[in-house]
Amino acid sequence: MQSIIWGTVVKIISLWKILRGIKCQIVQDKNGRAEGDDDLQRNLPKTTSELEEEPKKSRERNSDLQQEVEFLRLQQVTSTPLPSPSPPVASAGSPHSQRDLQGGQDHPTTLHRTNADLRDEENHGALNVRELRMELQTQKKLLKKVKDEAELELAASLRREEAALREKEAALRREEAALREKEAALRREADAVEEERKKFLAVISQIKEGNTLPTKPLNRNTPGVKKFGPNVLSENTTINNCRTNVTIHKEIEAFLEALFGDQTKLGKLYQKTVEKDIFYWSFMVNNTKSCDLLLRMRVVRQDEDGVEVRVESVEEEELEATSLPNPHSTATKKVQLLLKEGMIILQPLPFGQTSFTFMAQVDVGEVTKDAIIASTSSSRKSTTSKTRSTTAGSISSAVIGATSRTDGAMKMVGVVAEAAKASELFSKLADLFYDRFKKEEEIDERRKADFIENGIPNAPPLTGDEQKMIEESMELVKDVASRGKRIAC
Fold first, then answer.
1. How many domains does the chain contain in total?
2. Is 278 helix (H, G, I), strand (E, B) or coil?
3. For bias kind Basic and acidic residues, which ranges apply (predicted)?
4. What integer pLDDT is reported at residue 181 of this predicted model?
């Protein structure tokens, strides 16, 4: 009986041990599954933030992987197992820091690692070589991709900079060529101006010396000369290049109105329009000579820069009216002028003034009054029929050098007494226009008003030296005022 009881107790204890072993096995299986689930959870795809931080931590993982690969090589070479490498010091921001510190295992990086591999690593302390190789290849591909992208971007940037430099260099070449062309044009213009200046200075010096310029004599076949000039003037006289300048205190419009008026008397200058644009000028020279001119004046340019009036002598045959008044019958001598290539240039100046420039090639001769009167009486018969209006005391066109046509001969009636200086006559013309329009006081008032209204308000600020000079002057004024005494006169 006792043996039966002990046998039953032994069976119960054996059954309890079996149940206890089964329970322990179940607990172990549960723990293994939980541990596998944790590993699987760690093997799930990383979040977006971890994926964004992966390039930044690649260098750190590469260093860890290199240490582990070196350890694996040593373990394969030697027959005895080596101790596991010390776990790397995990940083606070490393995603596998907690796992490395607790179990000394490497952080899983791919999803193909199974729970069996993880348990094998925990049991044996070894790394999976295949996973390490795949991780290394992944990191190499990532680094190569980043490197290629950086090289492509750098090459594109260098190409853009090179193209910009080429364009800039081409623009500089174009600017340099334009500057060279402009410099050459300015040099040519400066040479031309210098040449004209030399010629002008030479003419001025000869005029001042009172010399007759050595130019070619008048040609009878030249228009305006063959039927006009040689009849009064000597065939051996030469042409004087004359020029005069004067500032007229009047606007251009007022001057043109007086210049092209039908019949005006500008001071000592008498002017009459014969027909359209043909004018008869006469003025006194020292109250003893009367200078007569028969001219055609035409405006050839009129713009904002000024006005140009072409002046030339008129051939006698061009006139329909041949009777001209004699404004200075008391003159003892008549001075005849023949103009060639004459030009009057009017340019606006500040304060309502006009620059008057008269240039021409002039042939000058002098005829006595008695000879002119004689020629007038002999030629009046042939000119009366052509005269539109003949008044008492008028003198026909013989005054300006015409000869009698009754005998059909072109002969000189007047006697050439002496040659007058062209520069003197030109100066007289300029003086006459100046005297007619001179308004010095009015121009001075305009300058003063402009200085008060525009000059003073827009004056630049005083410099330090100027301010110091004014202060010293004021101190001197105070000193003089304090020491001086007023003396009654």
1. 2
2. strand
3. 54-63
4. 92
Amino acid residing at 95: P
Distance CA 134, CA 449 (A): 96
- For residue 321, give both structure tokens: 């009216």
Q: How far apart are the first and last CA of the chain?
A: 177
Eight-class DSSP state of 469: H
Name the most confidently modeled range: 83-97, 196-210, 256-270. Answer: 196-210
As a whole number of angstroms, the distance between CA 58 and CA 65 comes to 10
Q: How many residues does the chain have?
A: 489
- Residue at 28 is within a domain: yes
Cα–Cα dist 115/436, whole Å: 123
Residue 330 lies in a domain: yes
Query: What backbone phi and psi angles, to 5 degrees, belong to 382?
Result: -85, -15
CA distance 189 to 207: 27
Q: What distance separates the 2 farthest-apart alpha carbons in the chain?
A: 201
Q: Is 40 exposed, middle or buried (0-12, 13-18, 19+ CB in 10 A)?
A: middle
Q: What ranges in 44-128 are assigned the alpha helix state H?
A: 48-77, 97-103, 115-124
Angle, nearest 10°, between helix axes 115-124 and 2-43?
Answer: 110
**Please, are residues 134 and 110 in contact by the beta-carbon 8 Å criterion?**
yes
Residue 375 token pair:
């020629």
* Domain presence at residue 14: yes
Is 114 part of any domain?
Answer: no
Q: Which domain holds residue 288?
A: 224-445
Statement: residue 284 has pLDDT above 50: yes
**φ/ψ of residue 216, rounded to 5:** -70, 150
Give the global pTM. Answer: 0.36
pLDDT digits (tens, 9 = 90+) for 97-114: 444 444 444 444 444 445
| Coil/strand/helix, residue 127 | coil
- pLDDT of the residue at 274: 52
Is 348:367 a contact under the CB 8 Å cutoff? Answer: no
Integer CA distances (angstroms), 457 to 156, 447, 462, in order: 58, 15, 13
Could you tell me where the DSSP H helices lie in 209-317? Answer: 229-232, 252-259
The enclosing domain of 285 has a CATH number of: 3.30.530
Residue type, 349: L
Q: How confident is the model at residue 159 (pLDDT cuts 50, 70, 90)?
A: very high
| Cα 395 from chain centroid (whole Å) | 62
The values of phi and psi at residue 449, to 5°, are -65, -40
Token pair 């295949």 is found at 130
